[in-house]
Each structure stands twice: as structure tokens, then as C-alpha cells.
Amino acid sequence: MANTILRKRSLIPGTTSELVVDAPHIAAKARPGNFVILRVCPDGERIPLTIADADPTAGTITIVYLVLGKTTAHLETLGEGDGILDLCGPLGRATDIHKLPGEVICVGGGTGIAAMHHIAKGHHKAGNYVVGVIGARSRELLLFYDELKAICPEVLVSTNDGSFGRQGLVTELLQERLKNSPLVSEVVGVGPVPMMEAVAKVTKPFGVKTTVSLNSIMVDGIGMCGACRVSVGGKTKFACVDGPEFDGQLVDYRELSQRLGAFKPQEQRSYEEFKKSHVCKCTHS
Ligand SMILES: Cc1cc2nc3c(=O)[nH]c(=O)nc-3n(C[C@H](O)[C@H](O)[C@H](O)COP(=O)(O)OP(=O)(O)OC[C@H]3O[C@@H](n4cnc5c(N)ncnc54)[C@H](O)[C@@H]3O)c2cc1C
Ligand code: FES
Fold first, then answer.
1. Ligand nearest to the CA of 223
2. CA-to-CA distance for 193 and 126, rounded, in angstroms?
3. Is the residue at 26 inside a domain?
4. Which residue from 120, 158, 175, 182 has the fewest beta carbons nearer than 10 Å?
5. Which residues contact 115 (CB under 8 A, 6 or more apart)?
6. Could you say which DSSP state residue 181 is in?
7. Which residue is closest in CA terms to ligand 2's atom 3?
8. Ligand 2 pocket member 66 (CB < 6 A)
9. In this structure, are 121 and 39 located in the same domain?
10. Of 91, 112, 127, which closes a domain?
11. Whose atoms come closest to the Cα of 238: which ligand?
12. In ligand 1, which atom is closest to the CA atom of 243?
């Protein structure tokens, strides 16, 4: 069956999983920075998820998701052998990757680390010296450390509770690295909006090119609906077709955060209803 889940791995039990999905047409064209839009059931919403990896030979793509609400919770109920109803992609502009002097620092936080991994891998394949900077609240919530170690000569880690790496925030590690490195050509930041904003704030005095990957609400993913509208350098952009990557110094993060929270009451209600119906099904089976 198309879009079959071939492998499922729980990365953080109950909250974050990785799926390797049979999707040869997407895998053949997927580039770092691309994403897919999927639907789990016929009356379900469309949600975007980053392509965390792609294997054109095996015809598979890897997606990693954090269970946040109804659709990601529904996705989490699927297992190996199940099919994803529809999977559309690759979408979005691919990351601009070419050989750069000095180093490229790829910063990731939370689930954003998985998305950043594909970009870091692309820079590594282009021959760039990639420094991974990743952070989480604690060691057990840190994703893709081994995967990044395989491609980055250096992976710097911070945890809020100090259980692994340096205690503190990724931005502190980034600032230190920028102070001590003779040449940094680009900083890429992928993670929660406040983290990407903080990354841009840290890089600003250094004048380093800073790229962030925006996670605005998306519906069609092809530039028709306007749901993903963001302001970048005072201009309106559609994150699905003009991005999702933009110059981190130019993004209106306040507007992005506001728009991301626009449907919170409806999302909460829908999640509560899903949880009730799911519990109901389990108790009757
Ligand atoms: C280009 C892009 C790539 C992304 N990649 C990943 C990824 O690799 N892994 C991951 O875990 N998450 C990723 N996200 C975020 C993911 O799409 C949302 O977490 C998901 O849609 C939540 O849906 P839900 O029904 O589970 O939760 P809901 O309760 O519906 O929503 C929770 C929050 O998620 C956001 N959200 C809801 N619907 C959408 C939507 N249609 N589009 C975008 N955001 C939405 C809103 O901020 C909302 O408040 C990405 C978003 C974008 C735009
Ligand atoms: S998601 Fe509809 S225009 Fe971008």
C-alpha cells in the first residue's frame, strides 16, 4: 500500500516518534528543507511535517513528530504496516546549500533537531564543516544526537537541567562558538519560535547569515490559501512556497507566534473529543 509505515521508533515515549514511510516518488525528489503535508483520515485536517531524512534508493522518507493535538495523536495510533491516508510532497523550497568556507553551525531545539538534521546532512554532503548545536530540557528529551554525531565533527549539547552537556540554553553555546570561531559562514536555526528568535538575536552582532525554518500554520501547502502568511522584512510571504526558510533577522516573530495560536480553543476542543472517542474505542475492543 502506498504511504505504508515501514518502521516506527519511539524517540520519547508517548510524545515523539519517528516513522520511516514508503514514499518512493517523494524520496526521489526530497531535498533538505522540504516538508510533506499529510492527512490521517478522510475528515481529518492537513498537517505539515518536515522530511527529516530521505533514502531515494530504498524509496523511503523519515518524519519525526511531537504529539501536540488531534492529528499528531491520531498519527501516533498508527503502527508498522498501516498506511497514511495521503502524503503530499516534497513541498517548500529546498535549503540553499553549497560549499562554504569556515563552518556552518546548525542549531536545533526540541523536535526541530530532527528537521535540522536533514539540513546538516546536506551541508555535510556538500563538504562543509558542520557544527551541531542541540538542546533539550533534559538528556532523555534530546533527539538525534547519534545521527548528528555521524555527520558533524562537533556536536555541542545543552540541557536545561544539566543532565547532559552544558547546563543552559543552546543560544549560550552558540554565542560562545561565534566568539571563538575564526570564520562562521552561516547559522541555521530550527526549533520553537522563541528559540529561533533568540538565535537571530545572538547572531546579529556577528553579522553572520542566519537562516530559520518557520512552522506557520499551513493548509494547502502550495501557495493558494494564505494560511501560512508571514511578514519578512516588512513584506508578506507565504511560508509554504517562499520558505519555509527565511533570513532570521527579517522575520516578524511576534506576528508568527500570534498566528500560530489563532485556533487554540478549537484545537483543544478537537483534541479532547478525539481523546474521548479513542478511549471509547479501546475500552470496547
Ligand atoms: C513547514 C513545517 C514543518 C513542520 N515540521 C514538523 C515536524 O517535523 N515535526 C513536528 O512535530 N511538527 C512539525 N511542524 C508542526 C506541525 O505541523 C504541528 O505540530 C501540527 O500541525 C499539530 O497538529 P495537531 O492536530 O496535532 O495539533 P493541534 O492541536 O491542531 O495544534 C497544535 C499547534 O500546532 C500548530 N498547528 C496546528 N495545525 C497546524 C497546521 N495545519 N500547520 C502548521 N501548524 C499547525 C499550531 O501552532 C497549533 O496551536 C511543522 C510545521 C510546519 C509549518
Ligand atoms: S499553506 Fe496555503 S498558502 Fe501556504
1. 2
2. 28
3. yes
4. 182
5. 50, 52, 64, 108, 190, 213
6. -
7. 223
8. no
9. no
10. 91
11. 2
12. 1
Q: From ligand 2's centre to the CA of 227, what distance in Å?
A: 5
Read off the pLDDT of residues 149-203 as tens digits, 9 standing for 90 and up: 999 999 999 999 999 999 999 999 999 999 999 899 999 999 999 999 999 999 9
Final residue before a domain boundary, out of 155, 187, 213: 213
Nearest CA to ligand 1 atom 28: 69
35 CB within 6 A, ligand 1: yes
Asked if residue 169 has its Cβ within 6 Å of ligand 2, the reply is no
Q: Which of 234, 199, 192, 198 is nearest to 214 (CA)?
A: 192
Within a domain: residue 274?
no
> Rounded to whole angstroms, how far apart are CA atoms 264 and 130?
37
pLDDT digits (tens, 9 = 90+) for 85-117: 999 999 999 999 999 999 999 999 989 999 999
Residues 70 and 116 in one domain: no
Asked if 29 and 55 sit in the same domain, the reply is yes
144, exposed or middle or buried, with CB in 10 Å at 0-12, 13-18, 19+?
Answer: buried
Closest atom of ligand 2 relative to the 241 alpha carbon: 4
Question: Considering the domain boundaries, does residue 238 fall inside one?
Answer: no
Mean pLDDT for the stretch of residues 233-257: 97
- With a cut of 50, say whether residue 280 has pLDDT above it: no
Sign of the CA dihedral running 83, 89, 91, 96: positive
Summarised one tens digit per residue, pLDDT across range 25-40 is 999 999 999 999 999 9
Question: From atom 2 of ligand 2, which residue's Cα is the shortest distance away?
Answer: 225
In a domain, 240, yes or no: no
Domain of 116, in residue numbers: 103-213
Distance from C-alpha of 117 to C-alpha of 139, rounded to nearest angstrom: 18
pLDDT number for residue 60: 97
**Which one of the ligands is nearest to 45 CA?**
1
- pLDDT bin (cut points 50, 70, 90) of residue 1 is low
Asked if residue 224 has pLDDT above 70, the reply is: yes
Ligand 2 center to residue 86 CA distance, Å?
A: 17
Domain count for the chain: 2
Does 139 share its domain with 65? Answer: no
Question: How confident is the model at residue 279, as a pLDDT?
Answer: 60
